Amino acid sequence: MVETNGHSHEDTNEINVLTVALVNQDRENNIEKRSQGLKSEKEALLIGIISTFLHVHPFGANIEYLWSYMQQLDSKISANEIEMLLMRLPRMFKQEFTGVGATLEKRWKLCAFEGIKTT
Q1: Pairing label, strands 105-110, 3-4
Q2: Which long-range contacts (CB under 8 A, 24 or more apart) does 76-85 make?
Q3: I want to staple 61 with a disulfide (CB 3.0 to 4.6 A). Which of 12, 65, 67, 100 is the partner?
């Protein structure tokens, strides 16, 4: 056993494992805080439709494109309402930036299948 600053090498490894576990727990807690349960059947329906739309658009879609599609189904829906819903579900949807400079674009992607593999 090697001593470092009054702690054995074994103690240091235990501290590192504990630190990693706490950091991972904090990440999980933050995700849980952001991803609240569904408020209504309408939200479940929207999530299903958006998931299907993004599934057939594997490179993602910007919020305007999503909104124009969703407006055909619900004329009262706003882009902000869609974006807030997507932000609340970080294990299902992620936002990525593509392009450079003036061509920079924010796109939403379906990442639900990635989440299943890691849990």
Answers
A1: unpaired
A2: 77/46, 82/46, 82/50, 85/43, 85/46, 85/47, 85/50
A3: 65
What digits encode the pLDDT tens for the residues 13-23?
554 444 444 54
Q: Looking at the domain that runs over 39-118, which CATH code has it been given?
A: 1.10.10.10
Do 78 and 67 contact (CB within 8 A), yes or no?
Answer: yes
- Alpha helix stretches (DSSP H) within 35-104: 41-55, 63-73, 79-87
pLDDT in tens, 51-93: 999 999 999 999 999 999 999 999 999 999 999 999 999 999 9
What is the amino acid identity at position 74?
Answer: D
Residue 1, exposed/middle/buried by CB under 10 A (0-12, 13-18, 19+)?
Answer: exposed
What are the sequence ranges of the domains in the chain?
Answer: 39-118
pTM: 0.64
How far is residue 76 CA from its own chain's centroid? 25
